[in-house]
Design a protein that fits this description.
This is STAS domain-containing protein. GO terms for molecular function: anti-sigma factor antagonist activity. Pfam families: STAS_2. InterPro entries: MlaB-like_STAS, STAS_dom, STAS_dom_sf. Keywords: Plasmid. The protein is α/β, with parallel strands linked by helices. The protein has one domain: STAS domain (Transcription Regulator spoIIAA). Strands 1-2-3-4-5 form a five-stranded mixed beta sheet, sandwiched between helices. α1 packs parallel to α2. The longest helix has 16 residues. About 30% of the residues are buried.
Length: about 120
């Protein structure tokens, strides 16, 4: 599953998912903002279907991420835990994501081995 969205500012978001056993990895490339965060939200919601035990999110190729993207990640983490699945952002993350997590204090929630 993958999708692209071109925005007026030339930004582009690409989200893809891959399943191995009971783990789904969602990979994200480009800019996650208020115009594109719905794509990430949709992919993470889709990842929770079936017998998924883990959702991992790869943000190594993210060039920009604002609070819209952060809210999507935090909401997906909460839904995964409520469903009995684990959730984590895999490391390493891009420099902009690392800075966002550091500035907001959310790294410990999203980067750790979060299991239900």
């Amino acid at each position: 599953m993958g999708s692209d969205q071109t925005r007026p500012n030339g930004g582009r978001l690409r989200v893809s998912s891959a399943s191995v056993g009971d783990c789904v990895t969602v990979s994200v490339e480009g800019a996650v903002d208020h115009l594109s965060s719905f794509q990430l939200a949709g992919a993470l919601t889709s990842a929770l279907t079936g017998d998924v035990q883990w959702i991992k999110v790869d943000l190594q190729q993210v060039e920009f991420c604002d609070c819209s993207g952060l809210n999507v990640l935090l909401g997906a983490r909460e839904r995964a835990l409520e469903a009995g699945a684990g959730f984590r952002v895999t490391e390493p993350v891009s420099a902009v994501v690392a800075r966002l997590f550091d500035m907001t204090g959310t790294g410990s929630l999203l980067l750790g081995q979060t299991a239900a």
